[in-house]
Write a structure and sequence with these properties.
302 residues, alpha/beta, Metallo-beta-lactamase, Chain A, seven-stranded mixed beta sheet, six-stranded mixed beta sheet, 8 helices, binds zinc ion, RibonucZ/Hydroxyglut_hydro, Glyoxylase, beta-lactamase superfamily II, Metallo-B-lactamas, NDM-1-like
Length: 302
């Protein structure tokens, strides 16, 4: 498979990428277009920008769904433009630098030297427009909504809604073809965030990885995310064992392990046990008064 376009609604496009099975987005208005995520490296970004130029020559703006490297390392190809995100630029840069080293090493370890080099030499472009809550962006003839959500898949999730076309770009809050990624997620909060996103019943849902799908697919995944949260809670309470959770996870053992580890990391240590109250303050327990049944005489005539 090579990279290809799918038009999911009128002038709303999804670029299906071979690398990591990503789905990047493009929404075209009358005066401007919005690019949603930019790919794993500067090289991937240049190929994507070239593909965008096959469809439109309107000026572009860029939206990041979150700060994981595969969603924004391609932005250098888009030159000087507005870049919208829920996270702040400084955090993007510091995390980007760390991810660049880690992923380059990971690819190198897999013997994928060329991919490692592509990531290592990608120039990082942090967002310059911060989204707090929701922002309506008029592209000319159509308005898209950039909505901050979560924490869910990450601590800086943002989705893009195209209300006139009924399309939701969900970032990695939803994933097709592979289990959701729990590595830096908030397993307990994630299902609620997805429920909220689906409250307007978008007919077309584009996940961050995998094929575009519909509302009912997204709803099923929301249910499975809730089941993972429930299993995490029950393991924490000792109601089910870790082994049971892994065996019954809707996304398989690996995703469940990551979710459990994440819950453990996010749970604050238990508070220091309170010192026992002094014996005098406790006093003796209250006496138990036992009545004999025949002590009562109820006069029903009165
Ligand atoms: Zn991600």
């Amino acid at each position: 498979m090579s990279d290809r376009w799918i038009e999911v609604a009128d002038k709303v496009w999804v670029r299906r990428m071979e690398e990591l099975d990503q789905s990047l987005g493009l929404v075209i208005g009358e005066e401007c277009c919005l690019v949603i995520d930019t790919g794993v490296s500067a090289d991937a970004g240049y190929a994507f920008a070239t593909a965008v130029r096959e469809l439109t020559d309107l000026p572009w703006q860029v939206a990041y769904t979150h700060d994981h490297f595969d969603h924004w390392f391609g932005t250098a190809a888009f030159g000087e433009s507005a870049v919208w995100a829920a996270g702040d630029g400084a955090t993007y840069l510091s995390r980007g630098d760390e991810q660049r080293k880690r992923w380059a090493a990971k690819y190198r370890g897999q013997g994928r030297e060329e991919e490692a080099r592509r990531i290592a030499r990608s120039r990082l472009v942090p967002p310059n427009c911060r989204v707090n809550g929701a922002v309506g962006l008029n592209l000319g003839g159509r308005t898209v909504v950039l909505r901050q959500v979560g924490p869910a898949h990450s601590d800086n999730d943002m989705v893009v809604e195209v209300p006139d076309a009924g399309v939701l770009f969900a970032g990695d809050l939803l994933e097709g073809g592979a289990p959701p990624s729990y590595g830096s997620a908030f397993p307990y909060e994630w299902p609620q965030a997805v429920e909220y996103l689906l409250s307007w019943k978008p007919p077309i849902v584009v996940p961050g990885h995998g094929d575009p799908a519909d509302y009912w697919w997204a709803r099923t995944q929301a249910r499975d995310l809730a089941e993972v949260a429930r299993l995490c809670r029950e393991v924490a309470q000792g109601f089910v064992t870790k082994e049971e959770a892994l065996a019954h996870s809707p996304f398989g053992a690996e995703a469940m392990t990551a979710a459990l580890e994440r819950c453990e990391a996010l749970t604050p240590p238990p508070p220091e046990p309170a010192p026992p109250a002094p014996a005098a303050a406790q006093g003796p327990p209250p006496p138990v008064i036992v009545y004999d049944l025949f002590d009562y005489s109820i006069d029903m005539t009165r």
